[in-house]
Amino acid sequence: MVKTVTVLIENRQSSIAVDDGLMQIAEKIVDAAFTKEDFPYGYEVGITLVDNATIAALNKEYRGVDAATDVLSFAMLEGEEFIDLNEEEEAIVGDVVISMDKVVEQAEEYCHSREREFAYLLLHGVLHLLGYSHDGEEDTRRMRKREEEILEGLGLTR
User: Fold this and answer.
1) Which residues contact 153 (CB under 8 A, 6 or more apart)?
2) What's the CA gap between 150 and 8, in Å, rounded?
3) Residue 9 is part of which domain span?
4) What is the CATH number of the domain that holds 92?
5) For 37-57, what is each residue's pLDDT tens digit?
6) What whole-number distance in Å separates Cα of residue 84 and Cα of residue 13?
7) pTM for this model (two decimals)
């Protein structure tokens, strides 16, 4: 059986150029994360690229934090809700929102490429959709380990 995979990417900002290469990285990151997690269903993930003002408004509305952030994740399904799916269904897993302004700022700050920073932020957001968190030390360690495994596997190292 072939799993249906849908990655929807919407660019809602105009200050940072987004080319086909970045879109291909997005698809590779999402596929790698779901493959590494042995996700048994088809899936749909939405990715929205925004500016700092837009992500700050979302951060304030949904998290109560009045500041721009780099990535936000909005999960549609969690834990036991996946159990109710059958193999033919496509799981609408959720959405990841990325500030392209932060991609540029943090790539410069960490001295690596914009592509690497974008890949990291997207992967971080997707792992949140898959149930990862960084609420405690152990959770953070587990998430960071998975991030590095996937990025290294794709040749997107620091």
Assistant:
1) 32, 36
2) 21
3) 5-153
4) 3.40.390.30
5) 998 888 999 999 999 999 999
6) 36
7) 0.93
